[in-house]
Write a structure and sequence with these properties.
The structure holds 2 protein chains of 2 kinds. By secondary structure, chain A is mainly beta. Chain A contains 2 helices and 18 strands. In chain A, strands 7, 8, 9, 11, 12, 13 and 16 form a 7-stranded antiparallel sheet that branches. In chain A, strands 3, 4, 10, 17 and 18 form a 5-stranded mixed sheet that branches. In chain A, strands 1-2 form a two-stranded antiparallel sheet. Mean pLDDT of chain B is 95; it is low at 1-6. The chains are: A mainly beta, B mainly alpha.
Chain lengths: 254, 341
């Protein structure tokens, strides 16, 4: 990933007026913790494999696999300077892995007017086969669909119109217009957590409301869109719209 | 002056040489480093000992079977029969799994059902299993201690002549970790050193097409040369289960009927297929995914066309897919003298 990090400095010295002592501020790592809910009720992988959720369209469904990609955590200091952390993280609720993500780079403690992160990879970072850990995790997208990586794999079953259990594969990727495979739309997006005070041990607790993927702003009909969605350009755009409301800041702890 | 004896003399000679693992170029490009446990680093002496043990029938109760009896090098370290026959003529209930690229199984769960956590632990199990080698460790250790070579080999590998089951398993695991297959025609194609036929390319396209084979979601891709995700799936073999697979291990009914995805490398040598070896040919395997899927509550949602029986490939697509799968054949692997007795 191209590093955009605007390093203010490894440490700065602020001179105290009253005591003429130097206060040294060292960069600190920040931690993003991810939890999940269905309409606000917290869920874990213990809730998987059960037809216990009802989406906005009234369809009963189960979750059997949920993993997604987060990248480009960015912090904008009150001074206006932006720090972009050169990190990404695969959150895998299925196996309870990647739920807590500690940045490998540090930022200076202080007041930040905006903290954002990206769902998926932006196009410039979504380089086919470039990330060994994601390759090993089998998170790739085939080249005819634009290559790069999945942004999310969300699989489960739902009760269809004939009251049978049917599978769904809500797989989010960079949208490709089949008529022009070189014209990929950047369906990754950034989410602004808001202003944050970064201290010595800052934990930013974020929650994905999984039900939002099915309702806002587009009510999702699984009978219409259940499988083979990766190559459906229009459906990927709908996913992108619905994804904009799935994450919320729960709390910040110091 | 110390009370010198042969045992301590041998132990003082413990200077193991680190083993240089030959990681294929594509693996270096595409995958994270293999998993080598800190408490069992690869050494020349450890690997050599592991190889000798792997092929040694002393590990079985009646000295008739070795690990290699059911994990034959010429079969990509699996058996060529549906079930393997134990030392007392009893057959198991699962097909022997091929031993390929095990150091890249990062879940560290081995066997079809993931019951063995870590290769070292896996290596312990068949020795005492009554329908496999049916021995016990005190007998095995006794036989190895009485052997003229093993005490010296253990000393060189581990710095002790005090043989036990843990060290035997460690040595075998070291040998198993060097069983790396990464030189197939398709590997060479990706490296720019080979060309594929149109049929093989069409087969790869079927493999990578979500609306055709959709094999890539579980079985790797040109970016994941393991050709497995090493995860557990119910791939729609049965509507009800005689073998619960992962469910037996976890006790979770949601895991019933799930088995670990095997690598697709070297399918030429690894028939029969599936955890119970029910399919004798690749054609049968492809037909299963095309029109033979059975619904059960735990079937993986990636078996998306289960209501139609499968992904409904045409005859031509099936032939092409098979042609592609055979490009994953690594002759160098099965003929590697380092892997042979």
């Amino acid at each position: 990933m191209k590093k955009i990090l605007a390093i203010i400095c490894l440490s700065i010295i602020i001179t105290s007026c009253s005591e003429d002592k130097d206060i040294i501020l060292n960069p600190v790592a920040i931690t993003l913790n991810f939890s999940h809910s269905w309409n606000g009720t917290e869920i874990t992988n213990d809730d998987f494999n059960q037809l216990k959720f009802t989406n906005e369209n009234g369809q009963v469904l189960s979750i059997e696999r949920l993993r997604y990609l987060i990248s480009e955590v960015s912090l904008t200091h009150e001074s206006g300077e932006e720090t972009v952390l050169d990190d990404y993280n695969l959150v895998d609720l299925t196996n309870n892995e990647g739920m807590s993500f500690r940045s490998s780079e540090g930022v200076l403690p202080g007041e930040y007017s905006a903290v954002t992160f990206r769902f998926g990879f932006k196009r410039a970072d979504n380089t086919d086969g470039a990330y060994a850990d994601l390759n090993t995790a089998n998170f790739n997208v085939p080249a005819p669909l634009g290559g790069g990586y999945h942004f999310m794999q969300f699989d489960g079953k739902y009760t269809n119109t004939t009251s049978e259990e049917a599978p769904f594969n809500y797989h989010v990727i960079s949208a490709i217009d089949a008529t022009n495979v070189n014209d990929a739309v950047d369906t990754s997006y950034t989410l602004n957590i808001g202003s944050v005070t970064i201290g010595s041990n800052t934990n930013i607790n974020i929650q994905m409301d999984v039900s939002e993927w099915f309702k806002n702003p587009n009510t999702w009909d699984l009978n219409e869109y259940d499988v083979n969605l990766m190559g459906d350009y229009d459906v990927q755009l709908i996913m992108n719209q619905n994804g904009s409301s799935v994450f919320d800041l729960v709390s910040i702890t110091q | 002056m110390s009370c010198s004896n042969q045992e301590t003399d041998i132990e003082e000679e413990y200077i193991p040489v680190p083993f240089s693992l030959k990681v294929p170029e594509l693996f270096q490009q595409k995958l994270i480093d293999p998993l080598i446990p800190n408490n069992n680093p690869l050494t020349e002496e450890g690997v050599a000992l592991g190889k000798k043990l792997f092929f040694d029938k002393k590990l079985s109760g009646n000295n008739t079977q070795a690990c290699a009896t059911c994990h034959k090098p010429q079969n990509s370290f699996t058996d060529d029969t549906r079930f393997s026959e134990g030392v007392e003529g009893v057959f198991g209930v699962r097909n022997s799994m091929p031993l390929i690229n095990l150091a890249w199984n990062f879940s560290d769960k081995f066997a079809w059902d993931g019951k063995e956590l870590g290769l070292e632990r896996q290596a312990l199990e068949p020795v005492t299993n009554p329908i496999e080698m049916h021995s016990n460790w005190s007998n095995v250790v006794s036989k190895l201690e009485q052997d003229p070579e093993y005490p010296i080999l253990f000393s060189r590998a581990f710095g002790t002549t005090l043989i036990d089951s843990i060290l035997v398993a460690k040595a075998i695991a070291q040998f198993e970790r060097i069983l790396i297959s990464g030189n197939s025609k398709f590997d060479q194609y990706l490296l720019g050193n080979a060309t594929l036929s149109l049929q093989e390319l069409n087969g790869f396209a079927v493999f990578m097409d979500e609306e055709k084979g959709d094999c890539f979601h579980c079985h790797g891709s040109d970016n994941n040369p393991l050709w497995t995700d090493n995860e557990f799936h119910n791939n729609g073999l049965d509507a009800s289960f005689n073998d619960l697979g992962l469910g037996t291990v976890t006790g979770d009914p949601n895991d019933n009927g799930k088995f670990r995805s095997p690598t697709l490398r070297n399918l030429t040598f690894t028939a029969p297929y599936m955890h119970d070896g029910r399919f004798a040919t690749l054609e049968e395997v492809i037909n299963h995914y095309s029109e033979g899927l059975q619904f059960s509550p735990t079937i993986d949602p990636l078996m998306k066309k289960v209501s139609q029986g499968g992904v409904q490939l045409s005859v031509e697509e099936k032939i092409s897919l098979k042609a592609f799968l055979l490009t994953l054949t690594d002759f160098q692997f099965i003929n590697n003298p380092d892997f042979r007795n």
